[in-house]
Amino acid sequence: MTRACSRCLLALATLMLAVAPIAAHAWWNADFKQRTVITLNTGNAGITIAEAISSVAVPVRLHSGNFDFIGAKPDGSDIRVLAGDDKTPLAFTFEKFDGAGEMAIVWVQVPLVAPGSDKNLLYIYASNPSAQVQAPTPVVNGGALLTLRFAQADGVARDAGGSTRASTVPVSVDGNGLIGSSARFDGTRRLELPTSVSDSATAGGPHTVSLWARPSAMTGTLFEQGALRLALDNGKVTASVGAQKIVGGDLPPSTWVHVGLTLGTGKATLYVNGAQAAQVDLPPKPAVVNGPIVVGQRFNGLIDEIEVASVTRSADWMKFARASQGADAKLIAAQSQLQGDAQGEGEGHGGYIGILVKNLTVDAWVVIGILGVMFVIAIWVMVTKTILVLKTARSNQRFASAFRAASDVMLADGAQAHAGSSLARLYDAGLQQLRKRDVGREGAKGLSGAALDAVKASVDADLVRENHRLNALMVLLTIAISGGPFLGLLGTVIGVMITFAAIAVAGDVNVNAIAPGIAAALLTTVAGLAVAIPALFGYNYLASKIKNISTDMQIFVDEFVTRVAENYGER
To answer: 448: left (phi > 0), else alpha (psi -120 to 50), else beta?
Structure first.
């Protein structure tokens, strides 16, 4: 009995594992028409960590490549964020939402990020006109005492954790920072926050300070509070804890760098870009970290996402924070889905073409619209001209046979008997000239050389007009052939420029962010070639047919004038 129960439990577990992926893709609420799947990959193909990270704030960058801003509300009030089970709502807040510019940065409170897994998922739902506005929720890392993000319009730096802590004076803000806006320092101004008991600690910890900096000059103070100081010294990151000094590695100028300092277990550890740069032992009686917080003293450059925490962050936490806040492509991937899509792989709603069409920008639609008009015109020209040249060729063949079979050039059937024949129209033009000169009437004089030349000139003039008639509208095909690819290329270049500009502003550089926009931009080039290629084949076919008809007309004119000279020329 026990063995049988074990087998049943194993079968049940296997069934649950098989069903789990299907359930994970169930739609949370049918009122929301789109969702973006966010993957935090901590496996071998991502940013590997060995320990779970709990209650972490992750910035999610949305743009036209991974989110349909047209379908969402202009203010983002219909956005909801769900955990990986696609059931549990998560706290989130906007650092930036620009529906018109198709840019957004959403801070999400992630309860747990499992190590060694590519199944750390978040779901961002949108496109629900009836959704109500949600009150903003503070989203900060667990254990954070102070978090500064510089997203305030008035330039006053306020604690993102919901406290009333704020800088004493406004700071200069740069809108194109690392995560939305960043504080800008010019070496003469600084940011200062008043003393708070909550963020004071002994230098023995537990205590953590982390921030992002993009230095323009390689000297200055990044962060200072009492005995604790983070600074740049001739291009090197340094940390001071009382009398203890730690020196990190060299920093490149004008590049965003993540800097962190942890105090705990008798050690001070300096992190640069998520990796341990240096570590020293603290004295038995470390100094006290208290007093006002000063940021940017004699510093020139940008600073963003300053955090003071009452815990000692681990090496894995620093690694994850650097990757998530810096939008590392290996860690964060985003993919947009429409309701009913099969696991977001393009099987539903038009498949891959649907994905491309959904990501087309306005300029691409304009180019494709122009190309569509050109395509319709090219098809119309090819169809009408093909009917014309085929009808003309058949009528010419019948008229040429009748003309050559007639014994007298004046008795051959004319255009009325051979509708559509260009040869018959040339014949009628020549016949009118002959009748003006009474050719064929009894007692009429033979045609002189000058008269024959006049008849030939008149027929040649009609020959030119017939050629113009045959070649009419062919220039539209040449425009489609040469202009279509160039218009498509223009749309592609503009689309690629917009995509990269959007990614530069959002800071999201992973392939899932880039690929849809680039692929959609290339669609205009495909459209240009789709116009040019049929037009090229049609033009060459029609040109050869028109050339044959033109040659037949030239031969006929010479034949007609020769027969007139033989029968009615001067003797």
So the answer is: beta
DSSP, collapsed to helix, strand or coil, labels residue 262 as: strand
User: Mean pLDDT lowest for which of 242-256, 315-329, 335-349?
Assistant: 335-349
Q: What structural domains does the chain harbor? A: 143-310 (2.60.120.200), 359-571 (no CATH)
What confidence tens digit (pLDDT) does each residue in 312-331 have? 999 999 999 999 998 777 88
Residue with tokens 């069409």: 357
**Cβ-proximal residues to 275 (8 Å cutoff; 6+ apart), any chain:** 318, 319
Looking at residue 190, the DSSP 8-state letter turns out to be -
**Element (H or E) spanning 527, and its range?**
helix 511-568
CA distances (Å), 126 to each of 73, 221, 509, in order? Answer: 8, 42, 22
The reply to whether omega before 206 is within 30° of 0 (cis) is: yes
Degrees to nearest 5, angle at CA 176 with 299 and 48:
85
Neighbour-count burial for 478-496, b at 16+ CB within 10 Å, e otherwise: ebbbebbbebbbbbbebbb
183 strand-pairing partners: 173, 303
The DSSP secondary structure of 307-347, one letter per residue, reads EEESS---HHHHHHHHHHHTT-TTTEEEEEEETT-STTSS-
Q: How many helices (H) and strands (E) does the chain have?
A: 8, 23
Tens-place pLDDT, residues 115-171: 999 899 999 999 999 998 888 789 999 999 999 998 887 878 888 888 887 888 888
Query: Tokens 């957004």 sit at which residue?
Result: 104
Q: Do residues 427 and 452 touch, judged by C-beta distance below 8 A?
A: no
Q: At what angle do helices 362-405 and 511-568 cross, to 10 degrees?
A: 20
CA atoms within 13 A on the CB side of 256: 19
* CA distances (Å), origin 267, targets 145, 201, 219, 245, 312: 21, 15, 25, 12, 10
Strand-pairing partners, residue 116, are none
Average pLDDT (73-93) is 92
pLDDT confidence bin for 229, thresholds 50/70/90: very high
DSSP per-residue letters across 161-183: TSSS-B-SS--EEESSSSSS-EE
The single-letter DSSP state of residue 206 is S
The helix/strand/coil state of 203 is coil
Alpha-carbon distance of 487 to 335, in angstroms, equals 29
212 beta partners = 258, 304
Q: How far is Cα 271 from Cα 273, in angstroms, rounded to an integer?
A: 7
Residue 413 carries which side chain, given as an amino acid letter? Answer: D
Q: What is the mean pLDDT of the chain?
A: 84
